[in-house]
Give the backbone structure.
Amino acid sequence: MNIGVIGCGYWGPNLIRNFNALNDTTVVSVSDKRKERLDCIARQFPSIKNLTTDANEILRATDIDAVVIATPVSTHFPLAMEALKNGKHVLLEKPFTATVAESEQLIEEAEKRNLQIMVDHTFIYTGAVQTIKKYIDSGELGDLYYFDSVRVNLGLFQHDVNVIWDLAPHDVSIMDYLIEKQPVAISATGMAHFDSGIENIAYISIYYENNFLGHIHVNWLSPAKLRKTIISGSRKMIIYDDMEPSEKVKIYDKGVDIVKDKEQIYDMLVQYRTGDMIAPQIAITEALKNIAQEFYDSIQESRAPLTDGKAGLRVVQILEAANKSIKANGKVIEL
């Protein structure tokens, strides 16, 4: 399978490396508007002969089967649509598109042409998230109560999107994959501390039926880099700390039991449970290797990939609603 890659900034070279490492895929063409980036790719990957500043050379090439797009989100829709219209399968960097309407159009076009469209929701393919998924699906956590995540660091400030569109797609995609529930409403607050008017800090609340709550804190103005998530269930709880070098996932046999006093019906007794903590062994395969393999396999097997266009759409729905809410000073946006 011949692959064309559009965009070779920070993420592009990693995608090129992983697709070239697969047995049955070869990156044959790379495009970027900056010639200095193409010069860098030429040094890193001398086997790639076609390096171009014109993305249309890849989009319209007859010898390319699939296109990988790692460009700013504002360019995702036109590039992906052109690729689909030229009969090419598409892998897009996160977030899927800049609007819900764009996501829906790409999904419709891919289905009409029987092509696969996939989103690089990287963390879904990590050993840590896959391990958490197994524990949740097994029922070991019991009824789920909340998903609470923090993703903060100092920089990098973006000039075209706010902190929600930059950092939150990671946590929203993880939550969407693990919880498998449809949210009913979104509320978000945040602040732009500089003249650009682009929010650099935000708090997003995602409301679900049955009292499940999602909460995501993203921030470009933190003195320390934190990547931590807590998932609480009625039986057990999980802490996922992506900054931990080895024990990224810890399962705690802790919780509370609410017991009604039969003699005084209005009294509620809270009983705390404290048990063991285990840190399961996590597979250490590079997530991008798994993404490249899943993209290839989904095309070969004519099936939807794990993080298909519909998964991308669900994330964009939450991001778009959060953006509307933050501009309306935290107004609840119903979905």
